[in-house]
Amino acid sequence: MQHAARDAKSATFAATAKPVPGAARAAWQAGQAHARRGDWVQAVRSFEAAARQAPQDAVYAMNLARALLAQGRFDEAAAEAVRAFNLERHNTVACALAARCLMDGKRFRDAARCLQHLSPEAPRGHDYHFTLARALQLGGQPREAANAYMNALALKLTDANTHYQLGLCLNDLSMKEEAAQCFQTALSMGVGSNELGVRALLSYFEREACNWAGAEQGLAALRHALDALPADAAVATAPFAHVTLLDDPAAQLKAARSLARNLAANARPYPPRTSDWRPDGTRRLRVGYLSADFHQHATCILMAEMLEQHDRARFEVTLYSHGKNDGSDMRRRIERACEHFVDLRGSSDGDIAARIRADGCDLLIDLKGYTRGHKVGVFAWKPAPVTATFLGFPGSTGADYIDYFIGDPVVTPLDHAAFYSEHIAQMPVCYQPNDRQRALPQPPTRAAAGLPEDCVVLAGFNQPYKIWAQVFDVWCVLLDALPQAVLWLLEWNAQSRANLEREAAARGIDPARLVWAPRLKPADHMARMQLADVFLDTWPCNAHTTASDALWAGVPVVTFTGQTFASRVAASLVHAVGLPELACRDIEHYARTVVELAHDPERRAALRAHLIQARTESPLFDSLRFTRDFESLLLRMMQQHIDGAPPAALAAH
Asked: Residue 15: is its pLDDT beyond 60?
């Protein structure tokens, strides 16, 4: 896309050799003068006059499009650029400008169609194929995009960015190992300041394929690159890979801080605003939640009932959505659960911040952190007096422009404050909300799920990026010690299945003892989960939503407590559900607990009965109690603000 933008910009104000009416040429020359001064309002007026005088002149239409684009008037700019291109279908610059305007307006599929309509005799270089691939990729067509990137590489094999983008497309096609190879190639060619982020994604993709040798090599290089990163760096990183692959909270914070600074570089913060809300009830507290995940997604699966339980007499809740509308029942439920639902998909950080600021939001809560499609950069604009991050990301954002990180005494003990740029705000029981309305259909038979009838089922239902060599070593030791057991795994992608079966055989375990569960709809997955006897957790990234699903299904979760948020989530959940003994102190304790449970059907039955009762009696699943505790914590944040005190740690009470 940047290549198309460069070409289009360089030719936008070029003179035309065609004879044109004098008035049109005079208006065009005036427009050029305004453009050189950066006066785009007057430039638009002059170029509009020129285009009216000579409507068949493509150059005038292109000039007008560029001036409109400079003002952020994307639809109007696209209309003029497409008009210019339709006048001259062989004009590669007009085609590039039209594609750029459409892409800047988030009309990616229209941009791809525009590029595909370039006259067959027009030259098509690397930049053309790269821009087409980018439009297809952003338009949700990864297979077609991959083909276009291959065409671009055929013309310029040494372009690191093309290899990188091709890797992203292959990842979307579940070709994890091939994606990792593309990233390795990009790194060998040099990716400049993007090295840390690319290395993190390389390790993550290798782990998703359970290609552990490659992942370990990549992690060693990633650690080295992170160690070499200056403490005050402001380069793009991939914090999600750091929090899921590394058990080092200081390293995680360093990577997050770098990205947070990078995101803030383009922000123009608003002047500080003190909220005029007071706890005397004169008006409700305006709370905003910002996310791309207001649809069938783990975040909504957890917090739907919490949103429904908000006290509307005291809180005015707005959901700011910058993600897709999947048309699901969950999307409709979430829209009904709030007072205001604002769809901001495709909006820039600045535009989102402006809307939040205009709404007078008192307390803005991020629900994404550094997960896919995040908008952490919005917070750098300081759109609300008080800000917090919650639920979506298992680690600090590293952003000094976010005030609070909402956790609990287990996942975020106060003595871990040094690993958070935000101030820790603790919920009294568990940070994770839950939904008592979640489905729990009748379970299928074991035979229907592909499980042996007479066996102990050990479920490892985490995604494969959470399964690494040390985890699988322990699981295979358990299988060796428990000949009556099978390991039940999610079939997330074909590559991880093949690699895990090979790794099992290398450890002396018959791959037939690995039973594969295909991906199903959430309700069907919840139904079959009840067939498991024990849920085996992973480290250093635990099961999160998956762990609460298992507990809801009556399946005991065995975990152990690490040093990072991501490695303490399951411990928080089992504490909240009244089974702290399942949060083990080390790997040996973890393995011993699993073996003891496998040999003790009576204890397993007692744990299942406890969890079934917990659905109605445990604070983990008490959505109303959670919501009131959450509201109380928000009020404490606001009280700190209106008292004129800076944000500070808020311990559970």
From this structure: no
